[in-house]
Design a protein that fits this description.
The protein has helices spanning 25-28, 49-54, 57-62, 94-108, 136-149, 156-171, 199-216, 218-221; strands spanning 2-8, 37-41, 70-74, 112-116, 153-154. By secondary structure, the protein is α/β, with parallel strands linked by helices. Strands 2-1-3-4-5 form a five-stranded parallel β-sheet. It is globular. The protein starts with a strand and ends in a 6-residue tail after the last helix.
């Protein structure tokens, strides 16, 4: 039995009825795995690499992760929030340094780290064109950390932008917690949430991560169920 430990934010976390229908990628990723693989999802809403470490969440993973396990590391959305010093990191310094702490934590316990770039937000201009990303520097910083530390990387960011461009503004609404104002019964004030996912989006983006692992081959592809 191998375990995938997942460190990340709200796009990954496991949700309950209080946030339904919000669904994180880590919540559904077992759909793509062999029966002898399981996910232990430590991702939490609103966390950056900085706040995740500060709150002891990485320490919790270190207490449980072991030889032959995997640590999936997916951050960026909250690291870029300059208005919040408790979460903000510089993309080419503190962000990279924090990612390297996750990498070391995995390797020191005989586990395999995998970096996953942040999925893209659903942001279209009035003409229906996908807007330039807010994640660009953090994606570049994560790729820098992957190269410097020889860690495999799944570019979910690039793949998700491709899917959003393919689907367009209207069709992509079903993947995200997008609700025309006043139509979401539990939270009538909610609308235009272009970051958090519904089940359809979590499964789609989970499938992209699975495809990235399949392309890596070896121990990473061996995690996946045969389709």
């Amino acid at each position: 039995m191998c375990t995938i430990f997942w460190a990340g934010d709200s796009t990954v976390q496991t949700n309950n009825y209080t946030t339904y229908p919000q669904t994180g990628i880590g919540q559904v990723f077992s759909l793509f795995l062999k029966e002898n693989c399981r996910v232990e999802n430590h991702a939490k809403n609103g966390r950056s690499t900085k706040s995740f470490i500060r709150e002891g969440r990485l320490r919790d993973i270190e207490a449980r992760i072991g030889q032959g396990d995997f640590l999936f590391i997916q951050f960026g959305h909250n690291d870029e929030k300059q208005e919040d010093p408790a979460r903000y990191t510089e993309p080419f310094s503190t962000f990279v340094e924090n990612l390297e702490r996750f990498i070391r934590a995995a390797r020191e316990h005989g586990a395999h780290p995998v970096l996953i770039t942040p999925l893209e937000r659903r942001r279209f201009d009035p003409a229906g064109i996908l807007e330039p990303s807010l994640h660009t520097d953090y994606v570049a910083g994560m790729k820098q950390a992957a190269e410097r530390n020889q860690v495999p990387l799944v570019d979910l960011f690039g793949m998700s932008r491709k899917e959003l461009n393919r689907a367009g503004e209207q069709e992509s609404r079903k993947w995200y917690m997008f609700f025309p104002e006043g139509t979401y019964r539990e939270h009538p004030e909610a609308s235009c949430d272009n970051t958090h996912l519904r089940y359809e989006g979590a499964v789609l983006y989970g499938s992209l991560i699975a495809e990235g692992l399949r392309r890596m081959g070896g121990i990473y592809a061996s995690l996946l169920a045969e389709f």
